């Protein structure tokens, strides 16, 4: 049972029944994503780091499903996975700043073997979370070579704009730094079509 290797935060457990066999492979984009996933599953180990995916695309294009599939397959292989619905995480972290729970969550995000952040960019911008949580978590994972996967309705370039509180240079610099870390951690794929339902 792969369920024991998946910690899901704010995500219904049932999505981890997603299977690679059920992935829609129609269209060039999905074929390329599928190829990347297969290579990752075959080649990744703690000794052999491989970048995760940054999946952008329209709402309903199946990004979460694809990520859940990867998480499930990795868990089946015995890897430990943490899968987080990012907007809810941000909401909860904001309300628990300063508590032990807050510190524990940050440690989990930093140290978990493989991290999935679903719907990044869908949250309300919080400078504190961006600069004191997301930035350090991504930096830690980058230096420690821990695979990190993302999904977003926005491409990384637009994500940087969305993470700015205002138009100031300082804000742009801070948001740009996050984008750079994401690009160092993950290969970007964009889904332009909704999945074909067979």
How many E strands? 6
Structural class by secondary-structure content: alpha/beta
**Whole-number average pLDDT?**
91
Distance between the termini: 27 Å
Tally of separate helices = 7
- The amount of beta strand, in percent, is 15-25%
Biggest beta sheet summary: 6 strands, parallel
User: Shape from CA axes?
Assistant: globular
Helix content: 40-55%
Over all CA atoms, what is the radius of gyration? 16 Å
Instruction: Write out the strand line-up for the largest beta sheet, numbering strands in chain order.
Output: 1-3-4-5-2-6
How are helices and strands ordered from N to C?
EHEHEHHEHEHHE
Poorly predicted spans:
none
Write the layout of secondary structure elements.
Blueprint: E1 6-9, H1 28-43, E2 52-57, H2 63-76, E3 81-85, H3 86-95, H4 100-111, E4 114-118, H5 127-143, E5 148-152, H6 156-162, H7 169-185, E6 186-191
Helix pairs in contact: 4-5, 5-7, 6-7
Task: Explain what the structure shows.
This protein has 198 residues and is of the alpha/beta class. The protein is built from seven helices and six strands; from the N terminus they run βαβαβααβαβααβ. The chain has helices at residues 28-43, 63-76, 86-95, 100-111, 127-143, 156-162, 169-185; strands at 6-9, 52-57, 81-85, 114-118, 148-152, 186-191. It has a six-stranded parallel beta sheet, sandwiched between helices. α4 packs parallel to α5 (127-143), α5 packs parallel to α7 (169-185) and α6 packs antiparallel against α7 (169-185). The two termini are 27 Å apart. The mean pLDDT is 91.
């Amino acid at each position: 049972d792969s369920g024991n290797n998946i910690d899901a935060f704010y995500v219904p457990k049932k999505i981890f029944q997603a299977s690679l066999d059920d992935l829609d492979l129609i269209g060039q984009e999905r074929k390329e994503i599928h190829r990347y996933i297969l290579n990752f599953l075959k080649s990744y180990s703690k000794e052999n780091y491989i970048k995760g995916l940054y999946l952008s695309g329209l709402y309903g294009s199946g990004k979460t499903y694809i990520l859940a599939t990867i998480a499930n397959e990795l868990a089946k292989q015995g890897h430990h996975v943490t899968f987080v619905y990012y907007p809810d995480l941000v909401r909860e972290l904001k309300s628990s700043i300063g508590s032990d729970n807050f510190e524990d969550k940050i440690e989990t995000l930093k140290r978990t073997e493989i991290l999935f952040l679903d719907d990044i960019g869908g949250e309300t911008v919080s400078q504190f979370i961006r600069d004191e949580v997301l930035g350090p978590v991504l930096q830690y994972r980058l230096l420690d070579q821990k695979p990190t996967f993302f999904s977003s309705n926005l491409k990384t370039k637009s994500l940087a704009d969305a993470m700015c509180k205002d138009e100031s240079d300082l804000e742009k610099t801070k948001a740009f730094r996050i984008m750079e870390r994401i690009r160092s951690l993950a290969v970007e794929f964009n889904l332009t079509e909704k999945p074909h339902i067979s």
